[in-house]
Amino acid sequence: MSSATKERMAGSGALRQPDEIESMFDQIVGRYDLMNRLMSVGMDIRWRREAARAAIGDGAARVLDLATGTGDLALELAHQGVPLVVGADFSREMLHAASRKRAEQREPRIQLARGDAMHLPFADGSFDAVTVAFGLRNMPDYAGAIGEMTRVLAPGGRLVILEMTPIQRPLLSRAVSLYCDRFIPFVGGLISGDGDAYGYLPRSVNAFPPAGELAIMMRRAGLHFVRFKLLNLGTVALHRGVK
Predict the structure, then answer these.
(1) For residue 65, what are the CA distances in angstroms to 2, 31, 77, 102?
(2) With pLDDT > 90 as the criterion, what percentage of the chain qualifies?
(3) Which pTM value belongs to this model?
(4) Which among 186, 82, 189 has a CA at the least distance from the CA of 130?
């Protein structure tokens, strides 16, 4: 398959195939948390905290954290009092890291499951909320993934998406581009040993739908009261919607 075929039409799905995405995350898992903190200057912790609050609302007994990675958002949801959090990911190495972190923090409210975001192994209406932080961008069909997340939500349940978004402020775009296109791949290569993975990051952000378009996708999936908030000078968006 040619690289042109793999690098899909912008806005429809991830630029790389699922097996490539899985392999990439398996390889960078050892420095994944460190790079997240460096790239966001530690702000990702605050963003996940806000995402968890948005998902819980007035209460949530069961929450699915999709593309859970090393489990940071799942842990935040549990720390905020959710009785059962299911952290799902398709990367075995990421799930192993999440399992170790869960054990270190002695957090019994988290269950971990390996699953495909396009075909979730859960019945309709299984969860009071679904969250995904910095993971939708790596799914092969954005609209299909949102539809699947909506399927497993109970009526009245909340979908919360925390994701990087193409910057819409021209005066900042060049500075952000330099940071993402040059600095992140360079530092990512030094720290993780995989500069290609962090070179993929800015390309995937540039190809991702702007926040307004993502909100439209959520409404088309049947979600109501959809709104979003831009964070970090407009480089990150927090979306929420209700089934």
Answers:
(1) 33, 21, 9, 14
(2) 67
(3) 0.90
(4) 82
